[in-house]
Amino acid sequence: xxxxxxxxxxxxxxxxxxxxxxxxxxxxxxxxxxxxxxxxxxxxxxxxxxxxxxxxxxxxxxxxxxxxxxxxxxxxxxxxxxxxxxxxxxxxxxxxxxxxxxxxxxxxxxxxxxxxxxxxxxxxxxxxxxxxxxxxxxxxxxxxxxxxxxxxxxxxxxxxxxxxxxxx
Length: 168
What we know:
Layout: H1 2-14, E1 18-27, E2 32-42, E3 50-51, H2 52-62, H3 65-73, E4 81-85, H4 95-105, E5 113-118, H5 126-138, E6 142-146, E7 153-154
Parallel strand pairs: 2-4, 4-5, 5-6
Antiparallel strand pairs: 1-2, 2-3, 6-7
């Protein structure tokens, strides 16, 4: 599977096989949709869709997940959205600048975006990750830890320097 995904990743990007679906998040108290989470599927014509858990780990190991995440962020609607990010995205020096550029280009208020950091054991500088998450929080974004469908944990709520990441 890894060889196939790696051999077809550029084609998947250019042919729009990496689909983004906006999954509603329902508030049980207000009984209204309060947010959307952008989730990805690899949908190659004539084949069953692959869930993120099948292709994201391959893209993370190869360092290509950043290209997919950037494309998703570049096509955000202006409704509250949760976007899953790999901790390895923060290994890219220009990542935060690009996020800020996209939000400025489309005039998206930062408080409309929640970044869900995927709790995956990937090689990432923990201090760099803490600093980047704190920077995004200071810019007005919400930051949470996402455990692939498990309970989300809010990481930043007034003390960004004290964030405790446990990714292994």
